Please model this.
Amino acid sequence: MSGTHKYPTISFRISPREREQIEAKIFASGMKKKDYFVRSCIYNRVCVVGKKEMVYQIVEKLQEMQSRMEELSEQIKGEKPEVTTEEIRELQTSYEDMLKAILWMLDGAKYLWQGNTNGEEKSPDSGNC
Model:
């Protein structure tokens, strides 16, 4: 039947700020939105296993952020800055969300470089993330 779905839709309203934070975490996780929400709701945590492609996307995002900050720095040093205080606040909020999401992801993957006390490396599915 057209127009009907097998499974129900779950939806809720969030503030623009909450959406920005969630979107940053989803981006940093490299997951599809649906998978991120399901894992987050069911398990109250999201275990992220990084892929090379995702790391490249994060590096590109960080390079964009660095480039934009360098541009802003030059504008501010100039005699007549083109950027407004509001734009700076928005960028600060956006960058803060992205950096927090990246740190959150790295914290979940710290088992990769920290190991454990008995010398065995645990996998993400073993409950250590």
